[in-house]
Amino acid sequence: MRWRCRFLLVLLAPSLHAQIPEAQRRSDFEFMGPAVQAMQRDDARNPAMLWVQQGAQLWQQAAGASGKSCASCHGDVSSLRGVATRYPAFDTPTQGPVNLAQRINRCRQSQQRAAPWKLESEELLALESLVALQSRGLPITPPADVRLQSHLERGRQLYAQRLGQLDLSCAQCHDQRWGQRLGGTTIPQGHPTSYPQYRLEWQGLGSLQRRLRNCLSGVRAQAWPLGARELVELELFLGVRARGLPLEAPGVRP
Description:
Order of helices and strands: HHHHEEHHHHEEEEHHE
CATH class of the largest domain: Mainly Alpha
CATH topology of the largest domain: Cytochrome Bc1 Complex, Chain D, domain 2
CATH architecture of the largest domain: Orthogonal Bundle
Structural class: mainly alpha
Low-confidence stretches: 1-17
Distance between the termini: 22 Å
Helix content: 25-40%
Shape: globular
CATH superfamily of the largest domain: Cytochrome c-like domain
Number of domains: 2
Mean pLDDT: 92
C-alpha cells in the first residue's frame, strides 16, 4: 500500500490546472496493451460488434403504436454518418443537452410512440453502438451552439472539482498526470472517443456515463444517477476537450 499512499500524496499536492496542449492529445487507445489494441482493430475479434449486430436488427424492427422502425424515417443507417460526433447536443423540449442514447430514446417515444429503453439496457447500447459505428474515423465535432454555453461551463467546473473522500478531480489524473502509472495501469488522458465501449472488467458493453460513475465510485464520491444533468454536462465538456480526435466507437478497453 505504500506506493498508493505516496501517489495520493503527490496527487493531492497543490498544482496549477492546465489542459493538455492540443499537439499532445492522444486517444486512450494508445495507452492500451497490444492484445487490447488488436481486439479493437479487428471487427471479427471486437466483442462490441455483437451489440452492433443486435442494433442492426433493432434498426429494422417496427415498434410502438406507430408501427415504424428507425429505417422507416432514416432509411439505411449509413445516413447517420457524422451524427455521433456531435453529441451531446441541445434539446429544445428540455432546454438542455442530451447525449446520443437520450436522443435515441426521445425518437423512440416521439416517432415510434414506444416506451423508452432503460438507460444502459442491452437494446439501447446496441442501437447506440450501431449509430456510433457509422461515424468511426470521423473527428469529434461538438456543436457550436450558444445555448449549450452555460451547460458546457458547468461541465468544465465539474471536471476540475475535487470530489469524494479522496478529494480528487478528473483533471488531477487525466490532465496533470496522464502517462504515469496507478496500480500498475497507465493513466490515460480520458478522451471519450470509444463509447459505447466493451471493457474486459465489465465483460460487456457500457456507456460513457457508466464509466464516469465508476470513476466517481473510485474516488469515493456519491455517483449521480444515469441520465443526470451533471453527467450529461460532463460529457459535453469532455466532447469539447476531445474536439478533432477521431471517433473509434465501439472501442475495447481492459
